[in-house]
Design brief:
390 residues, alpha/beta, Immunoglobulin-like, Rossmann fold, 2 domains, eleven-stranded mixed β-sheet, disordered N terminus
């Protein structure tokens, strides 16, 4: 090619993009590090939402990365299933279990890209809400980190890697969540999403929906208010957080709730608190049943709950028979599924009522041991996840 011709061709190529106005593009869903709950072993439905300014452009998307089966996803671009509606896009797409995936959206005009946006970490895996009191939150002696890099945390606004302290839960120390998430990720080869909402020192009464009444004030006096007709009632703060997370995740948007709570209700009078604030084991089970039922009603589906056996205060007060029976009664009565017995974690795993680093890791392992066979059964049997309430 003669020098003049080559120069002119290069000049025109350089000018070509300037003839096309760059489009504004923003992806609102999925979010970075978001984990979508899979519907079965192989896939989940992901909602894609955002804004784009060029309605006349061709808009496309794709996921890149390796699935849970070890297969690379096709790198081909797929057209949006419908045109933009007033500069918005909103559609559902089925995506294989696995991740982290890179998600991209682009706009084309006259065969040239006018916009590109990327979300670097998106996954289809397992999502768990973690509720209860301090040992479900960040009160362990040493902050923990996910070793797999496959565990993410959702605080109601954004998703981030699940390193302690866990956003959304009380406390500034360590938690069992990284160890639990790593164990489940290793077993099922998918990323894990954790939604922590635990609050230290809380009674089951404080977790009830607003206006639920009871005769005894809580040990700390928090999370409740005097009822107009006498007695006490929940102010609903903690329950509203749970309901909000369930709404944000959507129907069938989580695998289960992990409930670790009981120390603040068991044997409080023995610990020197006013005896008139002590509830019975039977009351405990009844309150937990109310909480579970309310959450399922607000979630709009039969959300599974796992509950732990946890009454430990110290080596001198290591368990409470009445409340251990109350917690196991919840399993026997079908209110919750059986979680771990963390009263078995004694002095070598403890720092006071809370856990040391070894205890946090062991705590996570105990939860994984309870969840793994149940979850494997759910996936193997291809059971229909219940959307109807019991």
């Amino acid at each position: 090619m003669p020098p003049k011709t080559a120069f002119l061709s290069a000049f025109l190529v350089c000018l070509q993009p300037s003839f096309l106005r760059a489009a504004d593009l923003a992806i609102q869903s999925p979010k970075n590090y978001q984990v979508f709950q899979r519907a079965d072993r192989n896939s989940a439905t992901i909602r894609v939402q955002g804004r784009a300014s060029e309605i006349g452009a061709v808009w496309q998307y794709r996921f890149e990365g390796k699935s849970a089966e070890g297969e690379l996803l096709p790198e081909t671009w797929r057209d949006f299933p419908a045109p933009l509606q007033k500069d918005r896009f909103d559609f559902l797409t089925t995506t294989p279990a696995g991740g982290w995936y890179k998600f991209e959206v682009r706009g084309l005009k006259a065969g040239t890209a006018i916009a590109l946006a990327t979300v670097e970490h998106v996954a289809v895996g397992e999502v768990f809400i973690v509720a209860g009191q301090s040992n479900a939150g960040n009160y362990g002696s040493e902050p923990q980190r996910s070793q797999s890099g496959l565990v993410a945390n959702f605080d109601g606004k954004s998703w981030e890697p699940a390193n302690d302290p866990q956003r959304g839960a009380g406390g500034k120390g360590g938690s069992f969540l990284p160890a639990f998430g790593d164990a489940i990720a290793a077993q099922f080869h998918v990323p894990i999403g954790l939604v922590p909402i635990a609050s230290g020192g809380t009674s089951v009464r404080e977790w009830l929906p607003e206006g639920e009444k009871f005769a005894q004030q809580t040990t700390t006096g928090k999370g409740v208010r005097a009822a107009a007709e006498g007695g006490w009632e929940s102010n609903g703060t903690l329950y509203n957080t749970l309901a909000s997370r369930l709404s944000e995740l959507g129907v069938l948007g989580a695998r289960a709730v992990l409930w670790h709570q009981g120390e603040s209700d068991a044997g409080q009078a023995r610990s020197g608190y006013p005896a008139d604030r002590q509830i019975s084991g039977e009351q405990y089970t009844a309150f937990l049943e109310k909480l579970v039922a309310a959450s399922r009603k607000d979630a709009g589906w039969a959300l599974p709950w796992f509950s732990a056996q946890t009454t430990y205060h110290s080596e001198q007060d290591a368990s409470d028979a009445e409340f251990r029976e109350a917690q196991s009664r919840a399993w026997k009565n079908g209110i919750t599924l059986e979680g771990p017995d963390t009263d078995a974690l004694r002095a070598e795993y403890r720092q006071g009522v809370h856990f040391n680093a070894a205890g946090l890791r062991k705590h996570g392992e105990l939860w994984a041991q309870k969840i793994t066979p149940w979850l494997e059964n759910q996936l193997t049997e291809k059971k229909q996840r219940r959307t109807s309430l019991p």
